[in-house]
């Protein structure tokens, strides 16, 4: 039992102890992604913007969504979703494509998952100015609820890393994982009120989608950036608890398998 | 304090045999039914078989053996990258695994950026590396291209940079896996001077090499392994001779 406890402690110590390495590796990921391209980091802004354009066209022109400042609503949910989905997609491959890191070094390979989550987070942060611009253009009011933003971000960090630990481990044993993950993410995306408002769903479906903690997460972003509300403290606390549990379970699961990684990768 | 830097006691390592596409569900399912609903045990292969030896502090220890004898597995076990099937390894001191030169190097990043990442991966702090940039680049004779991306380097320059990072970090126990003899002659000379400097400073060195002359020249003790067992252990001259005899 005490052994488990110290393992859990280590799970929270690794990101602090190796923060320099994680930060530099995350920057490296981004640098590599954009090096040689003329727009560089600008793509971090351009990509979601172009995606948004398509969605806005489909929903306001074709489906005639009448909600106020719909593009802002969409953008608020889409950006953290991209952070989440990108991190999970990349985490799946984190261990199997790590090469020397797992095979030839004694660093904890948990770092690799954290790097993916962080590099996608940096991407997210880079696109925030565009979001602010949209908020101003559409005259959406924001204010004090923004102070909750760091809390929501930390929660998403923990949840994403936790899930990342699981998918990265499974991928080592079953290379099908990457395909499964990709499809599951699609389902998940449409199962959450990102493009639509949950009020548009039948009552039963509304209850169903909120069985998913991630739906609350997205909802929290919408409350501070779109509705200018504080997220309900009870739900936020519950979400934080879920985040810590998911992270811990993911970490322990990863840890119990990682001894085999150098032999299988 | 123990007089040994590394003690290896009855070390055995078995690997599960990885078949091609071992985990397709169909294969598993069919196999499961055919075997009368029993879970199949994966066959294993013994890479190291009950090995015991120890390395005294401040000595240089050579490991020789043919390809596939188990040398690299042994080094990985000593570094703690993989865990033994049975037996124990006692380590006294900080080990830096230099099993692969330039671990984490990326062609798109500059020499400096790569030094930073490589150094961090080898366990240095950011400050320590920043203090050593010049030393590392000087040693590699690459100061003039410090901010060029690695993909523009020749393979000689690449290996010199990697070796220079490796050699300029300061561990108690240095493990060098077949990385001696990189670069041109003048660089090789500089490298062996650096090794001598390590020896003078009282570091423990573990060297894997295929070069009998080198082992005889710089090692205090050596070991020859073959098919996961120790064939010869002791004086480098005898080990080098046994290795040459085994090859011919």
UniProtKB/TrEMBL annotation, chain B:
It comes from the Bacteria. The keyword Chloroplast does not apply. GO terms for cellular component: membrane. Pfam families: ABC_tran (PF00005). Gene3D superfamilies: P-loop containing nucleotide triphosphate hydrolases. Residues 27-248 form the ABC transporter domain. SUPFAM superfamilies: P-loop containing nucleoside triphosphate hydrolases. Keywords: ATP-binding, Nucleotide-binding, Transport. GO terms for molecular function: ABC-type transporter activity; ATP binding; ATP hydrolysis activity. InterPro entries: AAA+_ATPase (IPR003593), ABC_transporter-like_ATP-bd (IPR003439), ABC_transpr_TagH-like (IPR015860), Bact_Polysacc_Export_ATP-bd (IPR050683), P-loop_NTPase (IPR027417). Transmembrane segments: none annotated. PROSITE patterns: ABC_TRANSPORTER_2 (PS50893). Belongs to the ABC transporter superfamily. PANTHER family: TEICHOIC ACIDS EXPORT ATP-BINDING PROTEIN TAGH (PTHR46743). This is Lipopolysaccharide transport system ATP-binding protein. It comes from Desulfurella multipotens.
